[in-house]
Amino acid sequence: MDDQYDVIIIGAGPAGSVTAWHASLGGAKVLLLEKDRDIGYPVRCAEGVGAAGLQSIVDPDSRWIANKIKGVDLISPHLKTIHILNEDFGFVLNRKIFDNFLAEKAAKAGAEVLTKAYAESLCFGENGRVNGVVFSHFGRRLSLRAKIVVGADGVESRVGRWAGIRTQLKMKDIETCVQYTMSNIDVKPDVCEFHFSRERSPGGYIWIFPKGDGIANVGIGISGEYARYKSPLRYLEKFVQEHFPKGSVLTTAVGGVPVSVTNRQIVKDGFMLVGDAAHQANPISGGGIVPAMVAGKLAGKVAAEAVQAGDVSQSFLEKYEKQWYRAEGRTQKIMYRLKEAVYKLTDDDLNKTADAVLSLPEEKRTMVSVFKKALFNRPTLILEALKVFKTSITEVFDPLS
What number does CATH give the domain 4-43+96-168+261-329? Predict the structure, then answer.
């Protein structure tokens, strides 16, 4: 390692690795730090991703695709199923391999990658500009300088707070999640299931993402408002007992997902936030992989431009902020309003929505029709939702990731 870099990125998830990749392609000298021993592990993710969003960043590769998804089942509280078929709906990834792939892309573009590098604090220069990182690595405490530091350390981001950015979320704007990877269970091989019920998954939903050969990710995310009264683990245990009593749990993952709009501030002098650290996930589904990569690509390019221009001020870096809002931020605000409306629906409302959609001819049962029926008394919001379906890279129902 050198003492000085153009860009140091903290966190080697999809947001951090794609930022490193594109900053390196732009000619910046980049160091990517990851606190864990292995990039992509442990997996705290349902591993589902929409096809269109993924392909806007990388071409699908069989090495890291566990399964191709051709449809989704939306299941109401009274267990009626709306089946939506789409040959190009999305994929279930193998996140460990996928995250390694993205870090390799960064390395091949010229970035240095370092694991077991635990960030401890930021360094500051004149006028409070961020200009470096202090981290520990196998017992050594190192301090390196950088023209730009990027925080890509996830929803629990400490780095943003170190930089003086307020990143706290309201309880209603974070979902607490628990997921089992289960084997020996009978699920549709190429269909993702989403179970909605205020009683069984308040302020969220239960998902089943098949990975092939009787293996699937089975998880739940519920609003933090409700998690204080009953743990999501208790809800998931009951669901699994009812639906997969003979299944085996191979792994268990827990974590939080931001379901808010993008953080009010995501850049400062010499500093940028990307991915879950910037609250850039899809608010209605919690899907974060594609938004993280979209943000990473934009941030990486702007970081390289800032370095080349010799201007790493907040005003220059706000170019990334503006590009994000044009690409996804405005859409995200509509998604947030959709979330606020949908998660207020009672089980009776959800049942009526399912019945209304199922009364339509099969070819007209689409995600658009679901939202139309669910929000029939909110015509303005329906019009906004329709615009989102036509323009969003990350898609309205990018699966939880």
Answer: 3.50.50.60
